[in-house]
Design a protein that fits this description.
single chain, 345 residues, alpha/beta, Rossmann fold, 2 domains, binds NADP nicotinamide-adenine-dinucleotide phosphate, Trans-enoyl_RdTase-like, NAD(P)-bd_dom_sf, GroES-like protein, GroES-like_sf
Amino acid sequence: MSPIFKALVVTERKQKTPLTLADYEEPTLSEGDLLLENVAAAQNPVDAKQLDNDFGIPSIPWVLGGDVAGTVYKVGPGVTKFAVGDRVISFLERKTARHSGYQTYSIAAESRTVKLPEKYSFEAGSTIPLAYITAAAGIADVFGIDLPSPKNPNVPSYAGEPFLVWGGSGSVGAYAVQLAHSLGFTVISTASPANHEYVKSLGAKYVFDYRDADVVSKIRQAAGPNLSKVYDSVSENGSVQASVQSITSPTGGKVAIILGLPTPDPSTSNVKVVATGARKAQEVPAVGEASYWYLAELLNKGTFIPNKVKVIPKGLLGVNEGFDLQRQHKISGEKLVYRIADTPF
Ligand SMILES: NC(=O)c1ccc[n+]([C@@H]2O[C@H](COP(=O)([O-])OP(=O)(O)OC[C@H]3O[C@@H](n4cnc5c(N)ncnc54)[C@H](OP(=O)(O)O)[C@@H]3O)[C@@H](O)[C@H]2O)c1
């Protein structure tokens, strides 16, 4: 069967009408590129934010989406790690419409792609790349943690040390909880009560309701006197300030955040709030290399738990509904996923 090249396209800036499908030509691959036949694409908050706030869209028409799972359809020059037919997940670069996710075939960089073992479905796999890389690169960068890498495959051990993940039921938070747990930290987290057991199943020892007026004192009591590392995967609506107050170590510590620094800066004399994010995987090559390598290790071990999947009907056309669910804050403890084959082409 001949391939279908169809994309869900943005045709005007801050578009209010539903995004629609359009044809495109098979793209040419550059050095280190793969062409992926997408099976599933996952939604991240940034997708609808880019549309609604008009950033990260260099030209119109445009295609959104950073997370895909599928098979390698073609390999470009210089590719060494992948072959046609491999099951993979990729954190797409979104530098052209063809490097984005809401389409049938995407250009993926070899360096940002990881093989997906059979144990994991494409739908589950698609939830991983962007949010996992955000968590891994941020944690490694801000706290100076050497994630396992080809040069040093040993997993560092932080056994006995507390680590707070504010917002463990979100996509990034769920991966941050698992990463911290895998490094031996005693993980403390926050979530709505309906998601407490879920966050514990990811490795958190204590989970508290962030709407509880006493949440900070409960965290401080559970943590003991040695909490110096907080990863705030929410980074808004007071979470940064509460994260700063949660630090108990007499020598202070750091709060990693993944949105812009609030004004005024909530840092104190010994607690530093540091803005980080997925970009650190590119800005600090050693951090990026270790983050992807460790993901492949965790997937191969089979212990890594992808986000809970909610498949939205109508494939790529379902993205319009998914963006509305995000705008209405109706996404809790699960990630929206689109099956390409469900699209009524
Ligand atoms: N800088 C970067 O590179 C980067 C990368 C990825 C994401 N981000 C940003 O990071 C944020 C999270 O992304 P995501 O993909 O993890 O989103 P998400 O999965 O949609 O997050 C939804 C979760 O957030 C939780 N939540 C909302 N407000 C909370 C609060 N005040 N305290 C604790 N939990 C709260 C909810 O928990 P309950 O349902 O349990 O209440 C919900 O499960 C977004 O703003 C996104 O744009 C930045």
